[in-house]
Amino acid sequence: MVHKLRTKLSVLNDAATRRTIHQFASKYHLVYFGAVDAREDDHQLVRGVTASTHHIDNHYTVGTFEGHDIMLVQRRNTLTFPGKPDAEFKWLIMQIDLKRGNMPHIFMEAHRHNETFYANLFVAIPQFQDITASVVQRDQQFAARYNIFAKPNDYVAVGAVLLPEITQTILQHFQQFDYEIIDDRLYVYSNASVVTLAVLQEMLRAGMWLADVLNLIKIPV
Q: What helix, strand, coil percent values describe the chain, rounded to 5?
């Protein structure tokens, strides 16, 4: 009985999410495709630190807004690691293409993941290090709210990206999201349990703002 109830609630929640994302896509002139099979579909896939060989993407939506190419998916994954508890995650991910490349790989997450996630992260990207402590001197508030990961060779470039005006704007207006920057892409992550039009619009607003700022930053060579 409990299993049937959970299944019914899951179906109802998925239907509500589909309606909401359809509404969002229609309002911003995007195209909704639904489920995506990474092994069979020809669509350009959303990558980032949450990508794996066994994640499941749904509500795939693409389009252009204010000159930015956008992709949106809801991603589910169950992460495992020896000696650690299994962990189920569900992310709403908005990918925004930047007008430039060669950005350092930075992942900023507001303490929304657990040890199983981090263990998988460091296996997938062995060069990643937690550099939060190095950000404390520039922005103690941001370093207290977010874990920041990057590669040692990118420390100088990361310093050029995490300017006080960026970290403070995130704290004041967009701290409900996590962020990843890599090369010519920006990812905005939401862990909201319920997908609403307001959440999607705020993700878009955060992504448009940050993408525009990143496009103007000078990265040291």
A: 40, 30, 30
- The sign one gets for the Cα dihedral 122, 114, 112, 24 is positive
Least confident piece of the model among 6-10, 130-134, 168-172: 6-10
Q: Does residue 11 register a pLDDT over 70? A: no
In a domain, 38, yes or no: yes
Distance CA 215, CA 212 (A): 5
**Hey, is 192 helix, strand or coil?**
coil
Q: Name the domain count of the chain.
A: 1
Q: Are 201 and 101 in contact (CB under 8 A)?
A: no
| Residue 208 predicted with pLDDT over 50 | yes
Q: Which domain holds residue 37?
A: 2-216
Tally of CB atoms within 10 A around 212: 15
Cα–Cα distance, 12 to 7 (Å, whole number): 9
pLDDT of amino acid 73: 95
* Residue 221 in domain: no
Q: Which residues pair with 190 in a beta bridge?
A: 92
